[in-house]
């Protein structure tokens, strides 16, 4: 069976996911496209999916009889209504992060899915599929002993002028928020945010870098540096300190050069290249589960937990170093 997918939002990642479905992955085909900017959908159709039908609205695409499953890759604030519409239609839906821009919005999706009685939603937390993070998790489970500390960094070379302080949480830290719950099999109890002086390349609406300190239920302390104008590259770092030893996220493969009296190797600059294989595996996983009418991988509950945590982190950004409590209600049985 070929899974017939409709894509809502054909910008940077919608285009890239369409490319992987059409050219890299097996078992699926993009049959429908929609974007508020129809010219963008038209261009993706011309370049990648000539047989796809264009829809003026995401709602019409979700309702279309030829669409078996939906990809939501539009702007974050538009995700919630599309995911709710897909769940109401009983269609599996892959939603890029964030699941919703507020915890209440994500909670509404959890409630709709629980009422439906079966998982339909996968959230685009692709790091869970990254070979490096999978190896790190195995090392933590088998070798380091119980984790005590995590030191991490999320560095982007540069961001556009429109990127402001809370986006460091909603847009960027959200990946760490999810991956550390998964890596440590734990949940958060509090968040703090600390600021050094602003980097010279920043501006009045962006505190950069910043350090987020998360504490977990099991007592692990996690410090994450977010530095989105670090200039030198796209650099994701993570070290877990356990009772018996430490484990570090592997560096992406890079040729080791000895040249001009220096040892050197390149650092990536684009998140698309850093996680290219993980995006492939997460979407192949979606195709497999959606072909059976369901969903797997990062769930709506994970999207909700991330939204609750990111709301607390944004509050902590405004609380001058004070800890902000993080509390989740009981996890519904659907997500056990
Ligand atoms: N997992 C990951 O590593 C990444 C995830 N993302 C997430 O993917 C989403 C899209 O990001 P980008 O592709 O970078 O943004 P983008 O701005 O390049 O593309 C978004 C597209 O959505 C369209 N759009 C906006 N509102 C819409 C609506 N109501 N209905 C239909 N289309 C609408 C826009 O016209 C645009 O073409 C965001 O939620 C972002 O956080 C983005 C980059 C990486
Ligand atoms: O999701 C992503 C972007 O939206 C975000 O802006 C970047 O900071 C992240 O590294 C990337 O993975």
Automatic annotation (TrEMBL):
Any GO MF annotation of the entry: nucleotide binding
GO biological process: inositol catabolic process
EC numbers, comma separated: 1.1.1.18
Keywords: NAD, Oxidoreductase
Keyword match Oxidoreductase: yes
SUPFAM superfamilies per the UniProt record, alphabetical: Glyceraldehyde-3-phosphate dehydrogenase-like, C-terminal domain, NAD(P)-binding Rossmann-fold domains
Top-level EC class: oxidoreductase
Domain Gfo/Idh/MocA-like oxidoreductase C-terminal: 145-319
Catalytic activity: myo-inositol + NAD(+) = scyllo-inosose + NADH + H(+)
Gene3D superfamilies associated with the record: Dihydrodipicolinate Reductase, domain 2 (3.30.360.10), NAD(P)-binding Rossmann-like Domain (3.40.50.720)
Domain of life (superkingdom): Bacteria
Described purpose of this protein according to its UniProt entry: Involved in the oxidation of myo-inositol (MI) to 2-keto-myo-inositol (2KMI or 2-inosose).
Self-association state and partner proteins as the record states: Homotetramer.
Similarity-based family: Belongs to the Gfo/Idh/MocA family.
Name of the featured protein: Inositol 2-dehydrogenase
Gene source species: Malikia spinosa
Lineage: Bacteria, Pseudomonadati, Pseudomonadota, Betaproteobacteria, Burkholderiales
Protein encoded by which gene: iolG
